[in-house]
Amino acid sequence: MRYPKPARRNRKTNKRLARLLPSETARGDRISNQLMFVPPNYETIKRKGKLKTILLYNGLSPWNVKAGRDVFLSSKCPVSTCSITAQREKASTADLVLYKDHYIPPSVPRSPYQIYMMYFLECPYHTQHVKYPDVFNWTATYRKDSDIVAPYEKWEYFDPRIRQVEQDRNYALNKTRKVAWFVSNCGARNGRLQYAHELQKYIQVDIYGACGTFKCSRSTAERCFEILDRDYKFYLAFENSNCKDYITEKFFVNALTRNVLPIVMGARPEDYEASSPQKSYIHVDEFGSPKELAEYLHLLDRNDELYNSYFKWKGTGEFINTYYWCRVCAMLHDEASFRRPKSYDDINEWWRGPGVCTNGSWRNFRARNPEKPLVADSR
């Protein structure tokens, strides 16, 4: 990790130049900005020895961290003067009260200078509907307009100018089967199973698990992925919901770490474009129907050169550690965030409001709402 210097300020306004919050920039996820942020007076803060207290209100076990400073010191955070606790009696004095997936109102008074943050791992369809208004100051989710963006994975190029390189292998070689899908949830609300069944009418789709006729247990998952690598050209990386920025390990781990071309359904096409290596997948919304998609897959199956063009991203970058706890600690030392803490009037409106998710395809959503923009990338 490259250790940053203390943040610079505007000489006239004395405001920090680093853009850390979604209200300060509509571009990107600000992960690097937050990770590299060090307050101008950090040396003084360290000498005083005062730590920022982070209360994990749902306990330590959901986070897989220890109480104290261990996670900040072991990660060699640029800003490490924070300490974690799960003692709820500290709810009135903690600098940050952090919830994971479920909000429980504290039984003690709240200070106006505290930050309350909600962390959601899953999409809106599978998370709590918070009934209390004006509770949260920050959010931590996979969405890029969260205050602390916590993606399932983050891709970074070694050199942003080099996004495609020639490969010295034929990724189609010896692959005899077309499309595979490993799935256990047969009732996803985005209709992914129905889409796969329609696709089966026009191209071979082998469905493994509870929703198909091919068997692959979790205990033999690695062997199943070896079969995927060896025999199949395409993999359905279908999420269980079509929601903004919702891209999980189904794509990043199950697909991109393998030598197979993923076909994706879930987030909007522009979300995949912003989060993925260039030309590393096919989005179902690029096609008007499963039949049209199947026709293109047959074309790729016949044309090794075209098929291999989807693998030229390999070797151009890597998935990186986003150092979530380091960024949380750094943000707690940002004076601007505490001077006038913002709050979400209704976190549900932001998290699950119009345009965040759709039961159908994003293509159809836009057709039904030509004048209605999707949720903006910043508040």
Automatic annotation (TrEMBL):
Keywords: Glycoprotein, Glycosyltransferase, Golgi apparatus, Membrane, Signal-anchor, Transferase, Transmembrane, Transmembrane helix. Residues 174-350 form the Fucosyltransferase C-terminal domain. Its EC number is 2.4.1.-. It comes from the Eukaryota. It is found in: Golgi apparatus, Golgi stack membrane. Its main location: Golgi. SUPFAM superfamilies: UDP-Glycosyltransferase/glycogen phosphorylase. The keyword DNA-binding does not apply. GO terms for molecular function: fucosyltransferase activity. One of its GO terms (cellular component) is Golgi cisterna membrane. It holds the Pfam family Glyco_tran_10_N. Residues 51-152 form the Fucosyltransferase N-terminal domain. Signal peptide: none annotated. The keyword Membrane applies. It is a single-pass type II membrane protein. Pathway: Protein modification; protein glycosylation. Belongs to the glycosyltransferase 10 family. PANTHER family: ALPHA-(1,3)-FUCOSYLTRANSFERASE C-RELATED (PTHR48438:SF1). This is Fucosyltransferase.
